[in-house]
Structures are given as structure tokens and as C-alpha cells.
Amino acid sequence: MLSNTLPRLLMTVLVTLQLVGCASTAQRDGVVLELSADGRRLDVSYRFARATTAMVFARNPDDSRSAHWRTASADFEIVREDGKEWVRRVDGGRFSTAELIVPAAYRPLPKDYAAFSPFSDGGLLIHSGRFQVCPVGARKDGEDCEGPWSMRIRVPTDVHILLSGNRYERSADWLDTSDGTKIYLGSAQPAADSSFIQVVDPGLPLEISGPMSESLPKIMAYFEQKLPPLVRRPMLYASYDPDYAHGYGHQGGTLPDQIFMHFYGSVWRETDATGGTAEDILWFFAHEASHLFQHGVSGTRDASWIHEGSAEAFAYLALESLGLVPTAYLDERRRRSVEACREALGKGPLAEAADRGEFSGYYDCGLLMFLAVDNAIRTRSGERQDLSSFWSALIAGNASDEPWTSPKFLSYATPWVGKDLTQTLLTLVTDKHDDPGELLAGLESR
Ligand SMILES: [Zn+2]
Predict the structure, then answer these.
(1) According to the model, what pLDDT value does residue 20 have?
(2) Judging by beta carbons within 10 Å of its beta carbon (0-12, 13-18, 19+), is residue 122 exposed, middle or buried?
(3) What is the CB neighbour count within 10 angstroms for residue 178?
(4) Phi/psi at 190 (5° precision)
(5) What pLDDT is recorded for position 446?
(6) From the CA of 200, how far away is ligand 1's center (Å)?
(7) Which stretches of the chain score pLDDT less than 50?
């Protein structure tokens, strides 16, 4: 085993030196990710400008690194302590380089992006944020681990890299910041139209990929017409891992200029298992696409109904306006949201849903709230304005990029929708309701 590992280790160390050589003037800490020839492993090497006693990961959703990642040398260990994952020398000594061996397998992470989304043809989407670390001093604290991080990725010659809308051979360098980015490693050629660049897994069944390729450009065009344009063409990734052995499902999200969906489990190959899912996927895509077009306007954590609820409402309005799903589907979504929102409000104020660990209330109640907002704006403006006009005004006025609190947001909305509605919405957010059904029925009738 050692004989297999050594030549590769020497290689990664060389690569690291090259990277630091390039950036020697800045003396920045560097991370190098190297994809193995079989595409199933990333060799990750860290190098620090100053020796450290430990390095701590920036994102710590669970302990799966210490369970599944390995150190290249037995002199190091990955441990979970104080709710964070750390790498340190077993003897407690200082170090300025560390190498880790990371299996490139899909593993859902609680409230974080999956590190790897494999494609059925061997391609791979990776999340850079999973590899962000900070060196810490002798007094281990690991607080405020913020970038930017100098990162480099290297791939075998039969694989190319898609990063920030550009294509690279062999290697690519970037400065990783905040939540990181998704990077595609594989041999697929992206398809592009005027509004986005996409890599859709060729192994996805037609029942899923067909409606996607037909409808996604229409959804993007809808938002382009309704809301201020995006600065860069976004990337869309739809990956499919039929070999995933621990169940099935799909998961996705957005990062700046990126939308991604990952399907896992062999069940997606069976036609009847995908029945009814095409609409859900279009809804999901419309929701995520609207996040891009929200241009960063959002609510604080307890006011997540602002960005999640509006994304739900934008999805509803886009699919309705484009006629991409049956009306019965939209009615059913709305009916389910009324039910779920009533249940969420029955447990306490919406503002406290995040603390209760019931985030879905922001989506369900938020959909109803923003549909009422849309309705009010259209009625008051004689159909000349709608939710997107209101949101465009928010974008224009959101120079500070501060997340909105519920009271501030609703007071901003008052001239658009009237005091009655904003009062109702504020009550819905801040109060405990013994009979939320009545409140919601009032909202629906607007
Ligand atoms: Zn969302």
C-alpha cells in the first residue's frame, strides 16, 4: 500500500510547490485537488505559508470527513471536536503541508452542498467549499475561518474542467470565496443557448431530460423578461448516479451563476417511477432560477419566507404564465401549501420556524404570502404591475445587500400592497395563531 501511495504523494507535493511558486509574492495558503486516473478519488494537498499545529475546515455540517476521508500519512489524523472537523499531526507537532485522500462519492450533507455529484458517464461535479480550511494557532479556536483560498484543480488528460463558465484542460486555478463553487470534471461537452450553459447527464431517462431541455430555456427567458438581467450566463448541471446504493431521490440548489440538480438511485431508470416527477422538477428549476434573478435580495434567517416564499411564488407564476404544467398541478401545490402552512403556524410564529428546525414553513406560508402580494399589486395597479415589478424595485434599492427583516420588508411593501395586507402578513410572521386556518383563508381570498 505504501508503495502505491509514495509516488503519488511526491507528485502532489511537487504540484503544491508549483502552485505556491506561482503565488509566491502573495504567500497565500494553497489547496490542490487532484483527480485520480479512475475518477474515483481526489488527492487533496494543503500548504500553509506558516507552519501550524492544526487546520480546521470552514464548513462542518457533520462528521463524515473523519468517517470517510483518510490522511495520506499515518502521522496525521482527521478528528471531530467542538462541532468542527480538524486535521492535525498525531504527535501534536507543527506542519506546513498535509495530504488527504477523499473518495469521490455522493453523500448528502445536512444543510450543505454535497461534495461530489457523479454523472452516469463518469463525470463529476465537485463543491469547492468542502475543501476550504484554515490553519489555527497553538491555542486552537478555528473561529472566523474565512477565505479567500487559492485553489488549483488537476485532472487526467481525458477529462476537462468547467469552472465559472470557462473550459480548462489539465488544470485550473481560482480564488475560492464564501460558499465556494461547483466545478465539473468530465468529458461531456456543455450545451449552450443565449441564457445558460448546461451539462445534462446523458443517462437521465427521457421522461426527465425531455421536459427539462424543452422547458428550461423558456423559464429562463421568462425571468429575463420579468426581472433585471443576470451579469453572467449561469451554468446548469443535472447529474445522475444510478449506482447509488443507499436509496433514491434528488437534491439540488444554487450558488452564484449556478443551478444544480443531482438524481441518485437506479429507480429513476424505471419509467413509472418518474411519473408526475417532471412537473416537480420544472417547479424546482423555476424556484432555483428565480433565486438567481432575485439578485441577492433576501431576508434574515427568521425572515427566510422573503427569499424562499418569493421563489416559490415566482415558480408558480412562471409555470402558470408559460403553461408548462397543468393547472391542476398548481392548484394541488397551493392546496398542499395551505395545509402545511396551517400546520407550521399551529406550532408557533413563522419567525421562529427556523429555530424549531421547521424550515419548510417559509416555503409553504411564503408561497401563499407572495401570491397574495402579487394579487394585491396587480389589482391596485390595474394589471400594470405585479410581483416582478415590486422585486425589480427591491433590487434597484438594495445597494447595501443587507438581508431584510420582516417588519422592514413589510413596511417597504406597504405602498405596493396596502396596509391591510402588510398588517395581516406581519401578524402571520410574528404571532402565535390558535386558528391559522382563518388567517390563511383570508389570505387566499385576496
Ligand atoms: Zn430556495
Answers:
(1) 33
(2) middle
(3) 13
(4) -70, 145
(5) 58
(6) 21
(7) 1-26
Query: What is the tens place of the pLDDT at every residue in 136-172?
Result: 975 567 778 888 999 999 999 999 999 998 999 999 9
Q: What is the mean pLDDT of the chain?
A: 89
Q: Which three cell numbers stand for residue 15?
A: 504540484
Give CA angle at 410 (405, 415), nearest 5°: 145
- For residue 294, the CA-to-ligand 1 centroid distance in Å is 11
Q: In what order do the strands lie in the sheet with 235-241?
A: 191-192, 197-200, 235-241, 258-264, 249-255
Burial 292-310 (b: 16+ CB within 10 A, else e): bbbbebbbbebbbbbbbbb
Residues 106 and 244: beta-carbon distance below 8 Å? yes
Joined together, the cell numbers standing for residue 285 give: 428549476
From the CA of 291, how far away is ligand 1's center (Å)?
A: 7
* Tens-place pLDDT, residues 372-427: 999 999 999 999 999 999 999 999 987 667 899 999 999 999 999 999 999 999 99
Q: What is the CA radius of gyration of the chain?
A: 24
If you measure from the C-alpha of residue 302 to the centroid of ligand 1, how many angstroms do you get, rounded to a whole number? 14
Distance of CA 337 to the CA centre of its chain: 23
Span from the CA of 287 to the centroid of ligand 1 (angstroms):
6
Q: What is the pLDDT of residue 398?
A: 74
DSSP character string of 110-139: TTB--SEEE-TTS-EEEEGGGG-EEEE-SS
Distance of CA 218 to the CA centre of its chain: 22
Percent helix / strand / coil, the chain, rounded to 5: 40, 25, 35
Cα atoms found within 13 Å of the Cα of residue 187, Cβ hemisphere only: 8
User: Quick one: cell of 89?
Assistant: 499531526
Determine the distance separating the centroid of ligand 1 and the alpha carbon of 415, expressed in angstroms: 26
Residue 95, SS3 per DSSP: strand
**8 A C-beta contact, residue 248 and residue 267:** yes
